[in-house]
Amino acid sequence: MRTYHFTSESVSEGHPDKVADRISDSVLDAYLSKDPMSRVAVETMVTTNRIILAGEVRGSDEVTQDALEQVAREAVRDIGYEQDGFHWQDAEFQFYVHAQSADIAAGVDAGDNKDEGAGDQGIMFGYACTETDSLMPAPLAYSHEILRRMASDRKEGGMVGLEPDSKSQISLLYEDGKPVKATSVVVSSQHQPDFTGSDLREYVRGVVTDVLPAGWMCDDSEFYVNPTGQFIVGGPDGDTGLTGRKIIVDTYGGAAPHGGGAFSGKDPTKVDRSAAYVARYLAKNVVAAGLGEKCTIQLSYAIGVSKPLSVYVDLHGTGQVDEARLSTILQQCVDLSPRGIREHLGLSKPIYARTAAYGHFGRTPDADGGFSWEKTDLVDQLKGAF
Predict the structure, then answer these.
(1) pLDDT grade for 360, boundaries at 50, 70 and 90
(2) Of 88, 135, 214, 366, which is most buried, counting CB atoms within 10 Å of its CB?
(3) What percent of the chain has pLDDT over 70?
(4) pTM, whole model, 2 decimals?
């Protein structure tokens, strides 16, 4: 279809699942800050006044249970939870973290006759398109930005009455394959009891209008703010949160495939994370180089094996080059072994807590190496190859 509607959603850093992601990634950063070669696979569950940490690790003994409890509480505090049902200081903390499996370690670790292997089998996807300046799908990019603005207003005191838990959803009309306007917008935000519905609606309208391109705002009849009424009880007190339950929000909002693996709480030897990052990096550079208006890349791995089993490239009929040759060129640009990915993108750093909300992709690279997979430093090399 050339004319259609497409919808994506986002959730804020205060959404229960995102609280869990933030804690897991903060734990990962704590280990990597002490030992860049740490092995971490940590899951978090949050519910009414309770934080539960579980998983397997191999890292510095300096990262103690007490230290991780403090890491978890500080993450919740930064998000903004000081509610009766979920408070960073008062929540009960439970700890079930143990040593990494020796069998997994044997497959991952490099040896005399083998390179570092993938931490698991699996398939990973990367995607980029020309719909936005960030080369991300427009519905997801705008959904993220609405919630990011609202979080900034809440934390900086510009909008008293907002609470951390919120969701957004945008449906865009596409004509001739290009987004042209919003046909519906849904925003649900936790709020304090005295923040009335009309005040919240007008505030959200201002944010959405500012985020969307001029003239893109939907009709008022299709603009929904807290459509069920009040939203006072929220966050982990209103719904249990678990690490890794928002993988489509984390990636491309449904505009591209997802291999199934979550990111948060996993160190970069886990290809669920690192290979998805490098796949986005390659796809973004392909589109930035003008080789296609859309690009999907799939990588696949086997546990304990360093080389990818396949590198698939799809330019969705927009390509200016041969896709099979492009696959070969990309593998010459970047070593796609787990070690090669980690070294090329500088992933063995404590840069992950910041990825836990508002998407892992479409972000601005940081000076300390955060979001390195969003760089477009392969553009000249790719242009030269063709």
Answers:
(1) very high
(2) 135
(3) 96
(4) 0.95
Could you give the CA distance from residue 249 to residue 237 in angstroms, rounded to a whole number?
22
Fill in the amino acid letter for 244.
G
Is residue 13 packed enough to be buried (19+ CB in 10 Å), middle (13-18) or exposed (0-12)?
buried
Alpha-carbon distance of 186 to 98, in angstroms, equals: 42
Question: How far is Cα 70 from Cα 367, in angstroms, rounded to an integer?
Answer: 27
pLDDT per residue as tens digits for the range 47-79 = 999 999 999 999 999 999 999 999 999 999 999
328, containing H or E segment: helix 323-333
Beta bridge partners of 318: none
8 A C-beta contact, residue 217 and residue 187? no
User: What is the rounded CA–CA span in Å between residue 142 and residue 153?
Assistant: 17
Which tokens sit at 68? 């991780």
Question: Residue 93's beta-bridge partner residues?
Answer: 51
Give the residue carrying structure tokens 């229960």.
16
Residue with tokens 């020796």: 102
Could you tell me which residues are beta bridge partners of residue 269? Answer: none
